[in-house]
Design a protein that fits this description.
460 residues; alpha+beta; 5-stranded mixed sheet; 55% helix; steroid hydroxylase activity
Length: 460
């Protein structure tokens, strides 16, 4: 017969001690670990960068000022005037075109988020880590280096070659026409919601086998996850981003399962079965690659289209030039990318002691390459602040990066930008902006959150 102590132990085991431990563990997973992740990854960097900005530090200033949507041209010039690599509190930054290209092409620099070492911060970061896929955490293409990066990229590159993209041109034109057919010319519209977002998400969804009824979900998830690239998020935005990434992760699992059951003629179906030297992608690698291609395939193009519409409506003489010389539309897209790029900057961590433009850079230091600043370098672009769709070297911008991490969707973005911008201005020659335009609050991704417009204003 069991003793009272045996029965007490059984009770504690069933619903007492173990139950309490499970509750504590659940609470830690739900509340404590996210708070620690936010504190280390965002609250601490935000406090450091804001303090640095108040003291005039260039890295702090560009991080803080970017979130306001302000014109950063003066700051770009100030950074450039400090030399090839301007020293900052956490490393270096540059807006010189030649130096940006050199850093992004140098294998001494790798893509990485800040590291916290083996001390208490490093231990807390490891303890609080989450398994949810993140666009700037391995095995994302944005966060890995060769040989893994080479393997992942090789598997997806063939879909984005110039020849493959050209074959998508007719279908992209049909999508643009269909979207514009659905607009009521008599009613004001938000072009981000009704056109700039829907065009690229439809194109990339067809490439990746996403069914039409799920594309609105993908668009919403992508837009909500956009701040995930930024440091220094508020607690509310951080929690929203984590919730969205978790939802995106779950959606990807369901989508991949559906494609395994019913494969089609699309990139993800091919990636599921693809082999490189006998090895395919693991489930985690597959989800990271698919998620990044899907989100990157429309998030930056949304910005390209919105920024382009805004620039052309504010520079009517340039729009008139395009109407007179429609062969310039391709060049105009590159000028939009140069003048108001969808991505402000990108960072690289120094993997070994090296020199850049004669300046020593130590292992572990961060170098921030300001893409938008390099695009305004007067040593490369004459009158760089001018928006000129006939600029002879507009294509020399660095908005797609450089080196091994050069944007694999660059050809697709150019094609969508050309068709998307030309078609809307051909269809609605009197298109005019309305009050209420609002820039996105994100720091890395630069574009419009809202872009109200009238489609029926009498043309000039």
């Amino acid at each position: 017969m069991d003793s009272p102590f045996d029965r007490m132990g059984e009770t504690l085991t069933r619903g007492g001690v173990l139950g309490t431990l499970r509750t504590v563990t659940s609470l830690a997973e739900e509340h404590v670990k996210p708070a620690v992740r936010w504190g280390i990854g965002h609250a601490l960097p935000r406090a450091v960068l804001r303090l640095a900005a108040r003291r005039g530090d260039l890295q702090g200033r560009i991080t803080v000022e970017a979130s306001t949507g302000a014109d950063l041209t003066g700051l770009f010039d100030e950074i450039r005037a400090r030399g090839p690599l301007a020293a900052t509190k956490i490393g270096h930054t540059t807006t010189r075109h030649e130096v940006v290209r050199a850093v992004l092409s140098d294998d001494a620099f790798v893509t990485a988020r800040p590291r916290f070492g083996a001390g208490i911060l490093g231990k807390l970061a490891a303890w609080s880590a989450t398994d949810v896929m993140h666009p700037v955490q391995p095995p994302s293409l944005l966060a890995v280096e060769p040989p893994a990066h080479t393997r992942y990229r090789k598997l997806v590159t063939r879909v984005f070659t110039a020849r493959a993209v050209e074959q998508l041109r007719v279908r992209t034109q049909q999508i643009a026409d269909d979207l514009l057919d659905g607009l009521d010319p008599a009613s004001p519209v938000d072009l981000i919601e009704t056109y700039c977002g829907l065009l690229p998400v439809t194109v990339i969804s067809e490439i990746l086998g996403v069914p039409p009824q799920e594309r609105a979900t993908v668009l919403a998830l992508g837009a909500a996850a956009a701040p995930s690239l930024d440091l220094g998020l508020s607690w509310r935005v951080f929690r929203d981003v984590e919730t969205t990434l978790s939802s995106f992760d779950a959606w990807l699992s369901r989508h991949l399962d559906a494609l395994r059951a019913n494969p089609g003629d699309n990139l993800l179906s091919r990636l599921i079965t693809a082999r490189e030297d006998g090895a395919g992608l693991s489930e985690r690698e597959l989800k990271a690659t698919a998620g990044l291609v899907l989100a990157a395939g429309f998030e930056t193009t949304v910005n390209l289209l919105g920024n382009g519409i805004s620039l052309l409506t504010r520079h009517p003489a340039q729009l008139d030039l395009l109407r007179a010389r429609p062969e310039l539309w391709g060049n105009a897209v590159d000028e939009v990318l140069r003048h108001d790029p969808p991505v402000l900057l990108t960072g690289r961590m120094c993997a070994r002691d090296t020199t850049v433009a004669g300046i020593p850079v130590r292992r572990g230091q961060l170098v921030t390459t300001v893409l938008a600043g390099a695009n305004r370098d007067p040593s490369v672009f004459e009158d760089p602040s001018a928006f000129d769709v006939s600029r002879a070297n507009a294509r020399d911008h660095v908005s797609f990066g450089a080196g091994r991490h050069y944007c694999l969707g660059a050809q697709l973005a150019r094609m969508e930008g050309e068709i998307g911008l030309r078609t809307i201005f051909d269809r609605f020659p009197g298109l005019a902006p309305l009050p209420g335009a609002r820039r996105r609050p994100t720091r890395i991704l630069r574009g419009f959150e809202r872009l109200p417009a009238s489609l029926t204003t009498i043309g000039r």
